[in-house]
Amino acid sequence: MTHEFKNPRARNDGILVLEDGRVFRGRRFGAITDAMGEVVFNTSMTGYQEILTDPSYAGQIVVMTYPLIGNYGVNVEDTESRKLFLSGLIVREASRIVSNWRGKQSLTEYLRANNVPGLEGFDTRALVRHIRTHGAMRGIMASGAIPPDQLLSQVKRHPSMAGCDLASGVTRNEQYAWAEASVILPSTPTRIQPPNPFENRLKVAVYDYGAKWNILRCLVEVGCDVTVIPASMSAGDLLAMNIDGVVLSNGPGDPDPVQYAVENIRKLIGRVPIFGICLGHQLLGIAAGGKTYKLKFGHRGGNHPVIDLSTRRVEITSHNHGFAVDPDSLPDSRVEVTHINLNHQTCEGLRLKDAPAFSVQYHPEAAPGPHDALYMFERFVGDMRQWKEQK
After folding, report:
1. I want to staple 245 with a disulfide (CB 3.0 to 4.6 A). Which of 22, 65, 146, 273 is the partner?
2. What pTM, to 2 d.p., does this model score?
């Protein structure tokens, strides 16, 4: 299927002003509205719909380094949450043509329907090089008719990402069950059939700090009955659910101010198997006695090499984080670093020595991929089954 949508992108003049005064001018598309946030970049060539709907991007303006974004459109099956949480999207060129049998809507229409602004038509390579050199920084997207000095004063008043608890703003305040598995392609989309729902099912609670739906799908596919719970649910209420394991999900912002989550995790360690992903990894690290720090420009993309120190196996992984666990802050008597990023030597995984708890900084549930780390969900299932046998 190849066609051009009838509603062309708006060609309004737009501007991006960074907090250090650097100015980029382009064309606005999507929702014609202003946006402020931390400007970050993602190096993935595909998966823009998953990026748009990932709650971990709350409060951020995302720059895609691949030059053409939107060519396969948007569909229902590939969303990762209930809405778009990012502040804005910047691309070199937003495709007006949707050429994919699954495409139901253009990128421009999708952004417009969700009130998210876009900016295109300038040298995004120069913008990314600037961020790599000077670090992620606050920025504002607005009409090109507004004087840059006026916009600069606005962006300097915008809160910094460091010190912000954004998880409380993206979590759902009620618990709910999840039973949907992934879609099988090609041909007519069908759902993966999970194991027998009446045999050896494991009850898993997922703390929603901004959980991606593919984490939930992956858990269903390995035989789990999944209940998603609010980020603030107490450890006591969680244990009263008589669960077999808990997942600490991904999410946005700085992990350090999310102390209510850290306190709950401390109470859960040793009481139930734990699996942390991304923000969940950082929170587990803090709960175990470690510290985190803000990266210069973060790691966001689908091709980061990570080595498993126990097997020496290298996995290609998906990343989306602006903070990292400081391995030197972890108590050696209690915590083992299990994975290292080969690009920059940051801590990518840890395991507690005194309890069934482990975590990874990257995304084993990565959609559209890579899928090298999907086995992590099987490992979690193994921990839960062993724990049940020992009880």
Report:
1. 273
2. 0.94
